[in-house]
Amino acid sequence: MTLRAWHPFRLALGLISAVGYLFLLAPIIVIAGASFGSTQFLVFPPQGFSLRWYEEALGRADFWSGFQISVLIALVAAVLSTIIGALAAVAVVRHRFFGRDLILALFLSPLILPSLVLAVALLLMFSAARIDPSPERLIAAHLVLCVPYVIRTLIPVLQRVDPSLEEAAQNLGASSLAAFWLVTLPQIRPGLVAGAFFAFIISFDEVVLGVFLAPARQPTLPIQIYSAVQFGLDPTVAAVSTLLIVLTLVLVVVSEALLGVRRLG
Amino acid sequence: MDRAMEPRDRAGVSPLSSFDGGQTAEVLDRSSADGHQSLPTAPPVTGDEAGGSPGTAWLTPWVLMLPALLLFFLLFVLPQARLLGYSFEPDPQSAATGLTLENYGRLFGDMHYLGILGRTLWMGLLVTVITLVLGYPMAYWLARLETRWKTVLLVLTIFPLLTSAVVRSFGWMVLLYRTGVVNQSLQRLGIVDAPLPLMYTLSGVVIALAEVLMPFMVLTLYGVIRGIDRNLEEAAMDLGAGPLSTIYRVTLPLSAGGVLAGSLLVFSLAISSFVTPSLVGGPRVQLMATAIQEQTVSLLNWQFAATLSAVLLAVVLVLALAYSRLVERSGDRSAVVPV
Question: What domain count does chain B have?
Fold first, then answer.
């Protein structure tokens, strides 16, 4: 027995879900909507329509340099964490060794442990070791947050690769490195791309480590937004935030399409 | 197309499916055929597989993990162990030396700090309840939906997760302001006479944080509910149960593990989140996260910042262990660590 489409239960369920989605998307809609208003003070619903805040945002040199440093940090963090994470994932999935479960738990623990505590711990350690604020310092810290995502993405992918294929290649004379490179790597490529994608997004959006560790003169874009928002509701900042939202959306759609096609093909 | 976007089908490859608790959900999904995919037994490591002499085969995993182990030792274990050490050192202003428990004594002996701890746990509880009450119907609806819109709705659930928490908290600031749209609507509807103080209050933090963490709850529950055999629900209804009692007596008990897992996850993330409390709550709402920042950056009392951090870390660790026990009991060991 299935319920009719207009059964009160289904209607109520649909209504609650609609409210839930409105709640979930409210802040995003509000920022995007308010950024097109023409008033100096940020309001929603927007009053009037204007693109002046976008003009102003795109003309700000500090936002551009923040964007550039964010992209640079995220790119380096994504590449490094994909390599580090992929090697570790292969070790965990393909090998048995002492303390494997514990080490895996350690590698995944930044996903749940407070990054605020890590940020404070790193700040104190860097200060004690007299390592001054620099983009490199922030990248190193970001790696700790990005590697778990890469490992978690790759483990199920690697589990689905039949190790006997690699053994077959070796029986046919390939070295273990060549067998991995030519047989396993092509099979886990979508997982690598997805892992790198997460690592990029995580690093690009990261704020907590940044607030404590980024050099004051070279803040990343999310930190600029974080600092600006504390001083007031600036429409220019709403415009920058909206551009960030759109950029995220484009990245999601593109990577989803890319991986989807590959998976089907 | 719809099916291709499904997390199960995509095997965690797609960004959309694996960002969430995709794995978590899969793991808790007891009734599914592949619910028992534990970490596979490693293939027999033979001498020639390792590429070298048989004697060095055991080294291979350690060489592969070397960069990750170095990274985690230097930038994760070492700094946090050092932080823990600071919490046992005396206040810099006192003349005392050696190890001491006075920081912990100060935290647990002072109503101000006990209040901060209590307020943080209370906030976490409220956030968990809101996300559960609103998230369960959403997850159920999503799991039982059979239209092409399902893909779009899944994307809409995951998309906020990928949007910066700063931007979403910014959105809540605009919404919760004295003259913001929430207060204006409430006044226009005649629900309140004067604008409610929402910005820079605990209520505001709870509302915003519930939204920020909602996707974790919905996605965890979605994975579990989707794994429940629909025939069970239909059987209950064929035997005369109404839809509500079917949910209460069949679906809810079968998804209890997911409810607990989602709640533990959201609670841990809520009590340790920093961005939303610091923007929406500001300095007026004293929570663990904001107190830790204040002690570190403004008061430069590293010892006390470390003590507050250690207590927060201890609470989250206990919850994480409970969570992993829960996941383990459901027959899978690959998700010993959550999310």
Answer: 1
